[in-house]
């Protein structure tokens, strides 16, 4: 589908308003700055091609598309886990350790943790974005919190029961 120039979209304002938040979300999910940039660009292109004329919440629409795109990228055969990017600004070694523990979580857990704690979305909003039940989002948050707590208590412990 081609770009519909009849749609009144203030493209620059849309990008300026959502670009940084989408990038942080993609980076939290993917763990790679270059892939995160590509995922954000893909989300904006999808918005141009497929977004409804006046979505109720462009930010939520873009986030849903971005998260789905990140999931697709994680399923790719060549995808590998990468260490915490050096480009992330952290105030000290303790904060870096905390972020490394967050990055050690599975992508679906990182996604809900990031959207809930860092982006401030409610569980109902996250559920709509990810097309999940609100209870599923709350369960993932609970599971991710337990895993993080376990990792913070004993960093040598792996993702086990």
Feature tags:
globular; 161 residues; Butyryl-CoA Dehydrogenase, subunit A, domain 3; 7 helices; mainly alpha
What does this structure look like?
With 161 residues, the chain is an all-alpha fold. The chain has one domain (11-153): Butyryl-CoA Dehydrogenase, subunit A, domain 3 (Up-down Bundle). Helices cover 66% and strands 0% of the residues. The protein contains seven helices and no strands. The model is unreliable at 1-6 (pLDDT under 50).
Secondary structure elements and pairings:
Layout: H1 11-30, H2 33-50, H3 58-75, H4 93-103, H5 107-118, H6 123-130, H7 134-153
Helix pairs in contact: 1-2, 1-3, 1-5, 2-3, 3-6, 5-7, 6-7
CATH topology: Butyryl-CoA Dehydrogenase, subunit A, domain 3
* Low-confidence residue ranges: 1-6
Q: Termini, distance in Å?
A: 47 Å
Order of helices and strands: HHHHHHH
Q: Beta-strand percentage?
A: under 5%
Question: How much helicity do the residues have?
Answer: 55-70%
CATH class: Mainly Alpha
Q: What is the CATH architecture descriptor?
A: Up-down Bundle
Q: What would you call the shape? A: globular
Category by helix and strand content: mainly alpha
Write down the Rg.
17 Å
Mean pLDDT: 78
Summed up, the domain count is 1
What's the total helix number? 7
**Major sheet attributes:** none
The counted number of beta strands is 0
Write a compact overview of the structure shown.
The chain contains seven helices and no strands. It has 161 residues and is an all-alpha fold.
